[in-house]
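Running this now, will post back.
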Amino acid sequence: MNDWIELGRVCGVFGVKGWIKIHSYTRERDGPLEYNSWQLKCGEVISGYKVEQGRIQSKGLIAKLREIDDRTMAESLIGCEIGVTMAELKKIELDEYYWRDLIGLSVVTTEGTNLGKIVDMMETGANDVMILGGEIQRLLPFTANTVISVDLDDESVIVDWDPEF
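Update: finished.
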């Protein structure tokens, strides 16, 4: 499913009334709770659920899904991936990007030197980092000082970067 975006996974249960514990993959820990419904992918099966309630609990999240009313039902969801479709994703600012949109783009210096393609992204706490594949694997910060422009239509990122670095 190319239009399915993972937000987290069910990692446990909370109490006896069907609440689940969630490990969030979103930058903001409570990101999955911004959505009223989720798709749960358990193996090859994907099912839709309405989120009745959710909150931050200790270092994680907990949620109550409609029709999941006891601990046994909640336990059956442990390990399931939580996601939404691309169409359901929250709108972002003009100069912001989802990592999935950046992966695969070519990175080129302002002088026209191709540094490779973005094969992955990582968060360091200070800023996001582009992981480039090519002749040499490179790590470039995704900051305003480095990234001059992103053109999703042209599938390229222009950077101010010394190719010898």
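Residues 71-75 form the longest helix (5 residues). More later if anyone needs it.
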